[in-house]
Structure formats: C-alpha cells, structure tokens
Amino acid sequence: MNLQSLGYRALLKNGNVRALLLAYSLNVFAVSYLIGYYLNITLASIGGPALVGLFATISNVFAGFLPFVAGAFADSHGRKYVILASAVLETLALLFLALAAGSGGKLIVLPAVMLSASFIASSPALFSLMGESVPEDSMGKAMSLLFMASSASGILSYIAFGSMIGRISNSCLFALSALFVLISILFYLRVSETAERRAGRTIERFKKALEGVTLLKEPLLKLFMVYLCFELFVSSIASPFVPLFLQKVYSLSVSQISWLYSAIGFATLVGAFIAGYVVDRIGSLNSLILKDSLSVPLLILFALTPFSGAFLALAILAFVEQLNVSSNRYVVENTRREHRGLILGFKSSLAKLSAVPGPVVGTFLWGIGPGLTFLLPALLTPLGILILLKLKYLQTMSRGF
To answer: Mutual orientation of helices 170-188 and 79-103 as an angle, nearest 10°?
Structure first.
C-alpha cells in the first residue's frame, strides 16, 4: 500500500506516528486540567490574585523565548532528546507541586512555572518529528492528529481530574498526574529519532543550530512571519473576551459557559480531522486564506446576532480555526531539516509575543462597546488575507511559474 494515497488509517500504521500520538495523548491528559485552570485556582487559594499574576508574568516571559531555545536544541541534539527532557522536567515539576501543595507556601509558584515552561518547550520538537515521520503529502493530516489528540485528551483531562478535585488531596492529584507523564515517557522512548545529532561539543552544536536564524532573512519566510504576527495580534484582540461576552451580553452562567466550551471542544475534534485532508489537498497558504475568509463573517455574526446565531458562529469558528495546522505545515515544508526545530520554535515564541498587545486593544474597545471587540478583528482580517495573497504570488514567481 502506498502511504501517500491513504488517509488517517494509513498514518496510524506508522510506528513512529502511533507511538508519538499515544505518548503525547497521555502527556496532555496528565497536565491539561492544570494548565487550563487548576494551577491558577490552586495558586489563588494560597496567595490570592497577586500570586496568580506573578505566575502568569513569569510563564509569559518563558513562553516568549523558551520554544526558540528548545527548537535550537532539537536541531542540535535531536527531537527525541528535547521531548524526553521536557517530559522528565514535567514529572519533576508535578512531584515538587505535590510536595509544595501540602505545605501551602507561596514557593509553589516555582514548580508551577517549571511545569508550564516544560510543557511549552516540547512543541517545536513534536511538530518537527511528526512532520519528518510521514511523506510530505500527508503532513497536514499528521499534524492534525496531534491537534485531535490534544483536544480529546484535554476534554478527558477536565472530566477525569475535574471529578477528583475535592475528593482527594491536591498532593495526591498532582502525584497522579506525574505518574501519567512518567508512563508517557515509556512511549516516547519507543519513538525513532528523525534528526541526526550534530558532531562536536554541546555548546558548539547549539551555536551551529542557531545559525538557522539566517533563514528568517529569506523573503518568503520573513513575509510569512509578518503574516503570523499580524494574524495573532488580531485574534488576541477578541479571543480573551469571548467568555466575558457570553456572560455579560447573553447572561450565561459560569457553568453554562463551561458546558458550551465542552460542546465546542467536540467541534474542534471534527474540525481537526477534516482540516488534515483540506490542508493536504489545497496546500498551506490556500488553507490559511480559506480560514481567514470564513472568519470575517463569523466574527460579525457572533458580535451582532442573538444567542442562537452567536453560538452557531462560535462553533463554526472553532471548527474553522483547526485549519491553523497549515501554519506549522508551511514551516516544515519550507525549511531544511537541520534548522526546522529552530524556526518552529521561533514561530511559537513569536506567537506569544505578538499576542501581548492585543488584549490591551480589546479592553479599550470593550469600554466603547463589547461588540467592537469582535468587529474590529473582522475588519482587520482582510489585511492578513492580502499578505497571504502577496506571499502566494511571490512563491509562484520564485518557482518560475
């Protein structure tokens, strides 16, 4: 059978894909409820909003540069090395959290930051390894499998660990999470490396990997990063205010919003499944153009229609957003293997930094009128589409068509 002519079933016959998905699913299951909400609740119960703010600030600082550094290490030492190191650090962080939870001291913020940073660090290596484990025509579906694993495991994490909160102590809860990450390491060990370990000492290898920064001077990749900066800035104007909009404008309770998000979580699973086929069929840039084109009317509907229309628009938006898998696919298919982790890491760091000013703009717009928080991104999104069309034109010209 030709793997390229088949879909998800064929990909799951690939030993590397299967082992990586199983390990990643267990890893996400172990920590999603913590990173999603329970770390903040735990910290708030110990040190109030000030401790939560300190955690968020330090975590954002790490998120701004750690993926870039981790990506360089993935290029110099191997993808598997970084993934395993991240998982080991997650396990240690969870065990330290279990110990600190019993004391109730504010130093619990340190293992909390360690957990968040370790989980973020593995992303460039994961997507590099997954993309390099399959044929180029199947990259979109392979990366969608990671998105689907993350969504499904996240939902299960909220349900399983959420049902245990209050029934067992936090120390036992965090230790149980550590056990699941430890099990995930056993499956990560079964994954085959896809990048050759560079020769030389550790620092020398790392310096050589950092030379990949020069790739960002290439016109096409540079323009793509400009698009990402703009798109992530625009989306961050609206995204933090969705729950608040549902609560204030449509008078939904916290529990109703929680159930609504759970329902939308299932929509993202279906969206990720279909996105893999779409991205591999029409290409990365066309998929991003399609996503942004559909987002414009959906944002307007969410801002202006009654609740039934707004809920439908939000669900379809969550569905359409899964086409974002094409941004990782674009980087993987347009970079050399020896610098791929670095560029993916740079992309992740850029995503965090570009999203910093957006909520400030969103807060200002909210003060004028809640609907404007979503209408302005709808008006700005076509500018991103123009950047993509320019990129597509330049790419066609560079290939001599």
So the answer is: 170
Residue with tokens 């890893």: 27
Phi and psi of 161, rounded to 5°?
A: -75, -35
Predicted confidence (pLDDT) at residue 5 exceeds the cutoff of 50:
no
Contact partners, residue 283, CB within 8 Å, separation at least 6:
326
CA dist 393 → 223, 284, 398 (Å):
12, 14, 9
* Count of CB atoms situated within 10 Å of the CB of 30: 27
Give me the residue label for tokens 């997650």.
Answer: 90
Tell me the two tokens of residue 319: 């569905």
d(CA 314, CA 136) in angstroms, rounded, equals 32
Are 181 and 94 in contact by the 8 Å Cβ rule? The answer is: yes
How sure is the predictor about 27, in pLDDT bands with cuts at 50, 70 and 90?
very high
Digit-coded pLDDT (tens) for 169-205: 889 999 999 999 999 999 999 998 887 665 555 555 5
C-alpha dist (Å) from residue 81 to 70, 85, 207, 306, 374: 10, 6, 17, 51, 42
pTM across the whole model = 0.73
pLDDT for 248-272, tens place per residue?
A: 888 887 567 767 777 777 778 888 8
> CA–CA separation, 246 vs 260, rounded Å?
10
- Which phi and psi (to 5°) does residue 6 adopt? -110, 175
Contact 345, 351 (CB under 8 A): no
Question: Does 378 score more than 90 pLDDT?
Answer: yes
Smallest Cα–Cα separation from 127: which of 282, 280, 329, 276? 329
| Contact by Cβ (8 Å): 187, 19 | yes
pLDDT, averaged across the chain: 84
CA distance 8 to 6: 7
